[in-house]
């Protein structure tokens, strides 16, 4: 049985399911955001500073550092190199020509960083509130 590991300063939002087939490993890197109702099904590795959008599904894959997988997308059975952008509703798999995928734009990278930063700020705020009571 392999562990499920979530890196520092990553956020797992409401309704996310993380589990694995036959106890395979699932790792989520640092400063990554897994948005509402996504499914991360191992074996799976998500790099650092990755954004996974609402309702997306990852299965038997690797998502490299700095990738953006937008809402309702599927990444199944392939390794997505660092810095790639999967658009909303797109499905990529072992036969996908990854050279056709766009690289993450500056605005998409900023959005990902803002989501991660906002969630870190929320934790700080909750901790400050806790100390008031």
Automatic annotation (TrEMBL):
InterPro entries: Gamma-CA, Hexapep, Trimer_LpxA-like_sf. Keywords: Transferase. One of its GO terms (molecular function) is transferase activity. It holds the Pfam family Hexapep. This is Carbonic anhydrase or acetyltransferase, isoleucine patch superfamily.
């Amino acid at each position: 049985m392999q562990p499920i590991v979530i890196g520092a300063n990553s956020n797992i939002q409401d309704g996310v399911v993380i589990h694995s087939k036959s106890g395979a490993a699932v790792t989520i890197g640092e400063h990554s955001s897994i948005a509402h109702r996504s499914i991360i099904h191992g074996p799976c590795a998500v790099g650092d500073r990755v954004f996974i959008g609402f309702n997306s599904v990852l299965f038997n894959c690797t998502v490299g550092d700095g990738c953006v997988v937008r809402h309702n997308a599927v990444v199944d059975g392939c390794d997505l190199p660092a810095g790639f952008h999967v658009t909303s509703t797109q499905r990529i798999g072992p036969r996908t020509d990854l050279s056709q995928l766009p690289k993450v734009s500056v605005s998409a990278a900023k959005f990902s960083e803002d989501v991660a930063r906002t969630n870190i700020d929320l934790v700080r705020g909750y901790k400050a509130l806790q100390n008031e009571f």
